[in-house]
């Protein structure tokens, strides 16, 4: 049984309608309808928050929908990779080339046009898409900004949220002209590539992003075994109270941390995770947003703080109660 069937069956059991689910997930009823009728592919679990909302609303076990979606998407992705890549929409290619630095544009166009969807075109398009999606994901958490966008576009809050959620689930094989017009065109000022090293520089619109320039570099590394994880990091992963809500990107960052002196505990990694999420620790416009939204988010911040304290207390209690290791 796929995720759409599970949701439909659960709605029927609870005597609920699609519009009720849409309201709970804070998206449009049309979006839910297209998901349940399979006209839209369910979005990736790590790119959206709707599955957590749906799980709670439908009273399903935590993480059930996300796990089903990821298994379904892996199967579909394998089928997609088996087929030769189709060329991008002409409008998408023209936008990507048009954003290229003027001195490099002719050379890039010649390379792109040699193949329908060659390696360089896929690489550049993917990196531009990654940058735009990173900005969109940050703004998705900014309710004030989202409501302003909805007002300017004469949309409801749910409609604006739905558009961004759909874009976050776009990949390089399915990006459309509409995605370009709504996100890539306004967010990205220009890009350039070093064809010798394949390093890519992306310049962003300062009015839409606190980051001005993003660089992608390809670094040569010596072969050998993958660096072993710190013992404290492995302990952190084994404690759901501390690590259950960490994203793949956050875990990758924590895994790469290395220490010349001492061995950090699981609690260190938990606190490092919270520091990574705190917008006050990063330069840019994020701190300003927090100040503007301070009143409306006060209760939520307090709830998160209490949750962190409880997690630390549970972790400390488990450490005290666990048998001591022999030296």
Mind explaining what this structure looks like?
This protein has helices spanning 3-14, 18-25, 29-36, 50-58, 64-82, 90-98, 102-114, 119-140, 143-152, 157-168, 177-187, 231-237, 240-243, 248-256, 266-277, 286-292, 294-321; strands spanning 188-194, 199-204, 213-216. Helix 2 crosses helix 3. It is globular. The protein is mainly α and 327 residues long. It contains 17 helices and 3 strands. It has 3 domains: 3-82, 434 Repressor (Amino-terminal Domain) (Orthogonal Bundle), CATH 1.10.260; 90-216, no CATH class; 231-321, no CATH class. The longest helix has 28 residues, at 294-321. Mean pLDDT is 77; it is low at 285-296. The protein has a 3-stranded antiparallel sheet with strand order 1-2-3.
Defining traits:
three-stranded antiparallel beta sheet; 3 domains; mainly alpha; 5% strand; 327 residues; 17 helices
Briefly, what is this?
This protein has 17 helices and three strands.
Low-confidence stretches: 285-296
- Supply Rg: 22 Å
Strand content: 5-15%
Query: What is the arithmetic mean of pLDDT?
Result: 77
Which strand order do you get reading across the main beta sheet? 1-2-3
DSSP summary, beta strand count = 3
Helix/strand/pairing class, anyone? mainly alpha
Main β sheet profile: 3 strands, antiparallel
Spell the H/E element sequence. HHHHHHHHHHHEEEHHHHHH
Number of domains: 3
Classify the helix fraction into a percent range: 55-70%
Shape descriptor:
globular
Distance from first to last alpha carbon:
51 Å
Q: What is the number of helices?
A: 17
């Amino acid at each position: 049984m796929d995720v759409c069937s599970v949701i439909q069956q659960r709605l029927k059991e609870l005597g609920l309608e699609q519009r009720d689910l849409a309201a709970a997930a804070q998206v449009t009823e049309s979006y839910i309808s297209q998901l349940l009728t399979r006209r839209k592919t369910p979005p990736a679990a790590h790119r959206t928050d709707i599955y957590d909302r749906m799980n709670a609303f439908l009273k399903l076990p935590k993480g059930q929908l996300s796990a089903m979606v990821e298994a379904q998407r892996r199967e579909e992705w394998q089928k997609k990779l088996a087929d030769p890549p189709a060329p991008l929409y002409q409008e998408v290619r023209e936008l990507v080339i048009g954003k290229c630095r003027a001195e490099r544009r002719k050379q890039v166009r010649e390379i792109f046009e040699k193949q329908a969807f060659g390696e360089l075109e896929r690489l550049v398009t993917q990196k531009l898409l990654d940058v735009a999606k990173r900005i969109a994901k940050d703004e998705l958490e900014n309710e004030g900004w989202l409501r302003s966008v909805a007002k300017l576009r004469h949309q409801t809050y749910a409609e604006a949220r739905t558009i961004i959620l759909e874009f976050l689930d776009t990949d390089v094989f399915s990006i459309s002209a509409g995605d370009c017009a709504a996100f890539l065109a306004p967010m990205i000022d220009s890009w350039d590539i070093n064809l010798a090293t394949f390093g890519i520089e992306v310049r962003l619109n300062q009015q839409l992003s606190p980051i001005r320039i993003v660089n992608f570099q390809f670094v040569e590394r010596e072969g050998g075994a993958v660096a072993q994880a710190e013992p404290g990091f492995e302990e952190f992963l084994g404690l759901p109270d501390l690590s259950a809500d960490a994203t793949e990107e956050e875990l990758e960052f924590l895994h790469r941390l290395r220490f010349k002196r001492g061995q950090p505990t699981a609690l260190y990694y938990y606190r490092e995770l919270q520091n990574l999420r705190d917008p006050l620790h990063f330069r840019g416009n994020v701190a300003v947003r927090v100040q503007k939204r301070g009143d409306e988010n006060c209760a939520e911040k307090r709830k998160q703080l209490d949750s962190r304290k409880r997690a630390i207390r549970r972790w400390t209690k488990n450490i005290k109660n666990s048998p001591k290791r022999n030296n």
